[in-house]
Amino acid sequence: MPATGEEVAASLKRFLAAPDYPEDAERSAQARLFNVVALTALAALVAAVTIQLALGQAGLPMLFTTGALAVTALMTALARVGRLKLASALLPPLLLAACITVVVIRDGLHDAAVMALGAVLVMAGVLLQRRGLALFAI
Q1: For labelling, which of 38, 71, 104, 130 has a CA lying 20 to 30 Å from the CA of 116?
Q2: Maximal C-alpha separation, the chain
Q3: DSSP letter for each residue of 37-74
Q4: Helix (H), strand (E) counts: the chain
């Protein structure tokens, strides 16, 4: 018997919800922040891959964009299995490296991926703690 719309909506809501840690309010808040940031990054990267496919672009830029999508999905999975601090610490530097690589390989400062650098910096400000943010900013 096929699933109803309500069942599909409920399962999608459970899938997109951030993990909850009732014993630690700070960790729950960090998990919600990470969830929003990661889902937004996943949506943006899916859009970027779709646009690159629609425009017939291939090669190294597509490889790095797809790699960034895979890394973001991996960090999301890592956060869901309880490694939230590790995922929060690794996601911004890995996405920054991917953005810089795509910018250098494609059109340089004229590339649309330059706008993603600002988003990655905001992401780092939200996810990283004081020491990590200081290292990231250097």
Answers
A1: 130
A2: 56
A3: HHHHHHHHHHHHHHHHHHTT--SHHHHHHHHHHHHHHH
A4: 6, 0
CA angle 73, 75, 80 (to 5 degrees): 95
* Chain segment 58-100, per-residue pLDDT in tens: 888 888 889 989 999 999 999 988 898 899 888 898 888 888 8
Rounded distance between C-alpha atoms, residue 46 and residue 50, angstroms: 6
| Tokens standing for residue 81 | 């299995």
CB atoms within 10 A of CB 37: 23
**Would you state the structure tokens that stand for residue 43, as one six-digit string?**
């949506």
Nearest to 128 by CA among 85, 97, 96, 95: 85
The rounded distance, in Å, linking the Cα atoms of 108 and 126 is: 27
Here the tokens at position 55 are 């425009």
Q: How far is CA 124 from the centre of its chain?
A: 11
